[in-house]
Amino acid sequence: MKQILRYLAGTVGYGCVYKKLNTSNTVLTGYSDSDLTGDIDDRKSTSGSVFLLGSSLVTWTSQKQRVVALSSCAACQGIWLNRLLGELLGIQTPRVRLLVDNKSAIALSKNPVHHDRSKHIDTRFHFIRDCVEKGEVEIDHVRTTDELANILTKALGRMRFAELRQQLGVTKV
Fold first, then answer.
1. 2-172 has CATH 3.30.420.10 classification
2. How far, in Å, are 24, 105, 142 from residue 113 at the CA level?
3. Euclidean distance between CA atoms 145 and 3, whole angstroms
4. What is the rounded distance in angstroms from the CA atom of residue 38 to the CA atom of residue 48?
């Protein structure tokens, strides 16, 4: 509890800075990460995702997974945000770009063939694969060092935390 109170006391002066939106920066980019069975008691992971519109932070989430699945919540959120953006601006928005640092997860989402190693994964968890096939989501690899969602899933040192916070556009106001 003391750590949370110290954190809150030290971040009272921080907030999100937003830049003016124009039609050239309407690309919605998401970062999605997981801590790979970070809870030592039940072996479930914490997933985090961050979405930026241009360079402005618009949404973020960090939650413990109920089951192991590839960023399907991030894909759902990205598609919803993209549709909302298109309606608000009255334009056809480009597809959501989701950046993930797990190459195996990316391969699983792009490959329509079920392999012996992945057959245990229920079809309802292949939602993201359907999104990729429909062209609603584009999944690309990002180096772990460039993964902005790490701030939501990993215990970071003070310097790395400050770097990621700044990259997200959270600054002293």
1. yes
2. 37, 14, 24
3. 26
4. 12
**Nearest 5°: phi and psi at 20?**
-60, 135
CA–CA gap between residue 140 and residue 109 (Å, rounded):
11
- Please, what are the averages of pLDDT over each run of 10 residues along the chain (173 residues)? 86 86 79 74 78 90 70 82 89 88 77 56 64 87 90 90 92 87
Q: What pLDDT, on a 0 to 100 scale, did the predictor assign at position 118?
A: 54
| Nearest-angstrom CA–CA distance, 104 and 141 | 10
Q: Do 35 and 153 touch, CB atoms closer than 8 A? A: yes
Residue the block writes with tokens 């790979």 = 36
CA dihedral 92, 94, 96, 101 (to 10 degrees): -170
pTM value > 0.85: no
User: How many angstroms separate the CA atoms of 19 and 55, rounded?
Assistant: 8
Which residues sit opposite 140 in a β-bridge?
A: 99
Helix ranges (H only) for 56-134 are: 72-89, 103-110, 127-134
167/134 Cα distance (integer angstroms): 31
Distant-in-sequence, close-in-space partners of 114: CB < 8 Å, separation ≥ 6: none
